[in-house]
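Project standup — Tuesday

K.O.: blocked on the structure for the chain from last sprint. Re-posting the sequence here as requested.
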Amino acid sequence: MKYKIFYQIIAMVLIAVGISGCNKQVTFDQIDRSQIPLDFHLTRVNSKNGELIEQFNFNNQNQLSSVVLNGSDCFNLSYQSNKLIAFNDYKCTYDQESRLIEVQGPELSNSKLTYGPKGIQIIQTTRPIVPGPKAVQVDTLNLFLNDQGLVVRATLFQRS
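H.V.: unblocked you, prediction finished:
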C-alpha cells in the first residue's frame, strides 16, 4: 500500500508540473478507472493532428525513466533503492517512513508534502524569474485517501 501511495504522489507531482505549463485539452475515453489494467502504461499522447503532446518511457525495472511534456519539455528520472531521487534538476527527499516529503527544484520551485491520517497535502511554491512586483505563487493540492490508502478525491486550490 505504501508503494501505491508513493507512485500516486509521484504521478501527481509530475502532473502538477505538466499542468502548470499545459495549454492543450486532452480527452481520455476510459471513464471508469477500475477498468484500466493495473499493468497499463500510457506511453504517448498525440493531438488530433498527430503532434506529440506527452511521451512516457519506462526502464527495465518497469519504472518511469523519462517524460516529455508539452511536446518538448523532457524530464529524466533517477532512482536509488527503487525510490525516485531526482528528475532533471529536481531533488526528492523522504522521511523515515520512506514517504516523499519534499521536491526541491532549481531555485524557483519547491514542493512540500504533509501526511495526515486521511490525506496528503502538497504545497508548491514558485518564485518569479525576475525579482519585482510579481508575487510568489502558491498552489495547494489536497489528496483525500480511503481506508485502503488510495486517493479517492483531490482538491486543487487556486494560486495565491
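K.O.: great, moving the ticket to review. Residues 18-23 have pLDDT under 50 and may be disordered. The chain is about 10% helix and 45% strand.
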